[in-house]
Specification:
It is a single chain. By secondary structure, the chain is an all-alpha fold. It contains 17 helices and no strands.
Length: about 270
């Protein structure tokens, strides 16, 4: 089996709205026509409903209900709204159950990864926090792709991991490629920015690549920190477990203790 065979199963791929892909493409473009994008979002009833539900959730704690996308822009600003659009579009890209995968848990953990990526990026001068957040959300999209297209093999990989196997090696044994490779190929299919595709591809071992990605280093750090946090690690233990070459690649020169404190105090996300 190869990745192109997975991508050929069009009816099984995540269904991400075009306006969401467009917004991801222009995340760092100061000249992007955001008004036009907002108009497109407002014209998508399903996406609009999901966004308004999130805006009106306790997470934002607004004093009164927001009833339109235009009002949401005024109340929370476009920078926060665009992240909501991306989050809503991605989390709604798969409907129903996915064999061998808890979809709600998958997306909530993806958003936690994104939040930690943003926390790390704010301590750098190399990566925009919104780009880092988006990269974190989509970092495991390849794993979702494997479960959607080849559920039996994907479940076999998970069984091997649960029994103590290395996920990278388990995927190579079952697929001859890894989920980051599959994820990067899917992002390329969607014509997302090269920066995101490379970061997803390199995320497990960015320092092993000839041209290592700072964004990949941030994803890698975020995933390691989240795993440590879920095992009950303290902020000090998270700091002690950090790879300094990886930290240097990410562009974090100072503030590691503050990052660890924020990770430890991060509440579990319930976005979906």
């Amino acid at each position: 089996m190869n990745i192109s065979e997975l991508l050929a199963q069009k009816d099984k791929l995540p269904n991400v709205p075009e306006v969401v892909k467009e917004l991801i493409q222009v995340l760092s473009d100061d000249k992007a026509d955001l008004d036009l994008i907002a108009t497109k979002v407002a014209r998508d009833p399903t996406l609009s409903v999901k966004i308004l539900r999130m805006v009106n959730s306790s997470y934002y704690g607004l004093p009164r209900k927001v009833n339109s996308i235009d009002e949401a822009i005024v109340r929370i600003g476009f920078d926060r709204l665009k992240i909501l659009v991306i989050s809503s579009g991605l989390s709604g890209s798969v409907t129903g159950e996915v064999e061998g995968l808890d979809v709600k848990r998958f997306w909530n953990e993806s958003f936690e990864t994104g939040e930690i990526c943003k926390i790390i990026a704010k301590k750098t001068k190399t990566v925009e926090p919104d780009v880092a957040f988006t990269a974190g959300i989509i970092s495991n999209i390849g794993r979702l792709l494997l479960h959607l297209t080849t559920p039996n093999r994907a479940k076999a990989v998970q069984t091997m991991v649960d029994e103590g196997a290395n996920r990278n090696q388990a995927e190579l044994d079952r697929f001859q490629f890894t989920s980051p490779e599959a994820g990067a190929a899917l992002l390329e299919e969607w014509k997302l920015p090269t920066e995101l595709c490379v970061a997803v591809l390199q995320q497990r071992a960015p320092l092993d690549h000839p041209e290592p990605s700072s964004l990949a280093a941030i994803i890698c750090l975020a995933q390691q920190m989240m795993a440590a946090h879920k095992k009950g690690a303290t902020a000090t233990e998270i700091v002690d477990g950090v790879s300094f070459p990886l930290l240097n690649l990410a562009g974090v020169k100072e503030g590691l203790g503050d990052i660890a404190d924020q990770v430890v105090n991060l509440e579990p996300m319930k976005i979906v």
